Amino acid sequence: LPAAQCASALGIAASFSGGLWGFIHDGSHTKKLHAARAAEGGVQAALLAQRGISGPAAVFEARWGGFLQTLAGEMQQPAALTDQLGEVWKLARCSIKPYAACRGTHAAIDALDQLLRQHAVATGDIARIVVGLNPFLLEMCGTRELTSLAAAQMSLPYALTARALYGSAELASYDDSRRLSAEAAALMARIELEIDDQQGRDDEPWVRLETVQGQQWQQHVAVPSGSPANPLSDAALHAKYRSLAARVLPAPQVQQLETLCLTLDNVADVRQVAVLLATR
Questions:
Q1: Of 92, 99, 71, which is closest to residue 229 (Cα–Cα)?
Q2: Which of 55, 135, 140, 209 has its CA 20 to 30 A from that of 86?
Q3: Where are the alpha helices (H) located in the chain, listed in sequence order?
Q4: Distance CA 144, CA 184 (A)
Q5: Nearest by Cα to 228 from 91, 134, 119, 132
Q6: Partners of 219 in the beta sheet?
């Protein structure tokens, strides 16, 4: 490979090792591969076993070379592997992202959304938006780099800009024509991030909205929307799916795929899903 592609190959291979946050610095594409790579690994393992490829039978035993011994030699808790197995599903801990931004920005977007709705503030009346956050979130999402889509999706200032200027932080608000517009740059310049020493690493930020008329309101959302404790409605889930799928698939195909997935328990052959996922 040429030098640049060789460097990319090394970066992708390193991400394949379990998922790295290295993408955050240059907006590279590997974040999109993390969950997909894990799912692919599970399917591949099942297919290999089905075809007679053997795996180590004692991989979870307390011996050299095993999974727990290698990754958590001093802290392993083997009993956790089977604790409430079949009763508690870790999938229920997952959040569904209503916005096309890093999950770390979502509580602040929710807070600003509530302020704008409650007080009917027009974009032109916004003097400042101040966000109080912890150092970890500032380092992760404090960027104002918008050159690439991946970089912009890690930007808390732009996420708030998108909500205030375009009414939503959905993927359409991250299109080049919107995120790189003069209007977006002007509004983002009025968004300030400040460290709140009272916040812990896992605390969500607060948002203060200040108007040119001198009014101030502050909001804090402790549990962002889409969390298991603050779930999205079915209508919101369907709307997000349609807004994304319609960018790449014809409308009839979008509807057919939605209907099929909502009745997946009754589908005899999942290859139907693959057919409907294909673009022309």
A1: 92
A2: 55
A3: 3-16, 31-50, 67-71, 106-119, 135-141, 149-152, 156-166, 176-179, 182-188, 234-245, 251-262, 271-277
A4: 11
A5: 91
A6: 207
Label residue 175 left, alpha or beta by phi (over 0 means left) and psi (-120 to 50 means alpha). Answer: beta
- Closest Cα to residue 179, out of 209, 145, 139? 145
Question: What's phi and psi for 103, nearest 5 deg?
Answer: -55, -30
Q: Is-contact 29 8, C-beta < 8 A? A: no
Q: Is there a contact between 155 and 146 (Cβ–Cβ < 8 Å)?
A: yes
Q: Which tokens in the block code for residue 63?
A: 């011996």
Would you tell me the crossing angle of helices 3-16 and 31-50 to the nearest 10 degrees?
Answer: 60
CA atoms within 13 A on the CB side of 228: 6
Structure tokens at 127: 């003097």
- pTM score, two decimals? 0.82
195: left (phi over 0), alpha (psi -120 to 50) or beta: beta
Structural tokens at position 232? 């999205």
Which residue type is seen at 61?
E
Beta bridge partners of 230: 227
Q: How many residues does the chain have?
A: 280
